[in-house]
Design a protein that fits this description.
The complex is a heterodimer. By secondary structure, chain A is an all-alpha fold. Chain A is 71% helix and 0% strand. Chain A has 3 helices and no strands. Chain A starts with 6 loop residues before the first helix and ends with a helix. By secondary structure, chain B is an all-alpha fold. Chain B is 63% helix and 0% strand. Chain B has a single domain, classed as Up-down Bundle (Ferritin). The longest helix of chain B is centred in the middle third of the chain and has 30 residues. Chain B is built from 7 helices and no strands. The chains are: A mainly alpha, B mainly alpha. At the A-B interface, helix 1 and helix 2 of A face helix 1 and helix 2 of B.
Amino acid sequence: MSQIPHSQALDEHLQEMVLALHAAVKGALPHINDDPALVDQAIRDCEEILDVVLEGDVASWIGTS
Amino acid sequence: MTAEGFRDKVEAADVPKMDPEYRDLLARVLRIQCDCEIGGPHLYVRNILPTAPTKVDQLIVARTAAEEADHYRKVARLAGEIGVDVAFILSRPNRERYVNAFRGEISTWEDFAVFGFLIDRVGRYQLEEFVGGTYAPLDRILPDIIVEEQGHIDYGQSKTAEIAARGGEAKERIQKVLDFWYARALDMFGSSASRRSERYRYWGIKRRTNAEARHEYMQEVRPLIEAMGLRVPDPSAGREFV
C-alpha cells in the first residue's frame, strides 16, 4: 500500500479551488446590501469554480492528460 | 487486541502490517466517505446555486459546497496515503453513487433545505462513528469537519422550519419533501443485520451498529420535526433497508 502518486497534487489543486470559493463568499457577504454588482460577480465566480470542481477532470488539473 | 476486538491506534505507516480485513474495511469506509462528501454538491449545485431565494442563500449554497469539497479533499488525502485512489469519485455520475440518497438530483429549495436538515445530519452521524476510532489519521481530521457539517444541518433545519411556518400549501409541500428524505436518511444507516457493520466495530473503525445509530438518529429528529408542526413520517414507509 504505497501513496497514490497524484494525491498530493490533487490535494493542492482542490485546496486552491476551495480557498477561492471561500474568498469569493467571504468578500461578498458584507456587501449584500451595498454592492450588488460585487455580489453578483462573486456568485458567478462560485458557479464557475464549482463547475470545474464537479467536472472532476483530475488529469487536466494535475497535468497528466 | 482485547476480547471485544481491536482497539490499538493505527497510523498510515502501520496499515501495510494490518490484517487484510482491516485494510479492506478502512479502504471501503474512506471511499464511501469521499463519495458522500462530494455527492452532496453533485446533487444540488447546478440547480440550486443559481435559483436559491436570495443572494445570501446563493452564497451559503456555494460555501456549503466548498466545505463539502474540502471534506472530500481531506478524506481523499488519507485514502491516497494508504494507496487508495479516490480521484474517480469526483466525477462519478450520480446514479453510481454508493448511497441511494445521492443518486438523484435536487431541483427545489425545499429539497435543499430538508437535505441539510436530515441527510447532512446522517453525515454527521457517519463522521461521529470514527471519533476515537482505531484509525488515528481519520480521528484527527474529524473535529473541523463535524463543526462545518453541523453548520449545514443548522441552516437546513432553520430553512425547513421557516417553510413549515408559512403553513398552507408551503407546509404541505415541505411535509412531502420531508417524507421523501426521511426514508432515505434512515436507509443511509444500512441494514440492521449487516455483518460488515459488526466487523467495522470489531476493528474499532466504527462505534455503533447500524441499528443503534439509526435509532439514535430517529430519537434526535423526532422532537425537531414535531417542533416545526410537521408529522414524523412512518419509519417503515419507502424504505430499502430495515
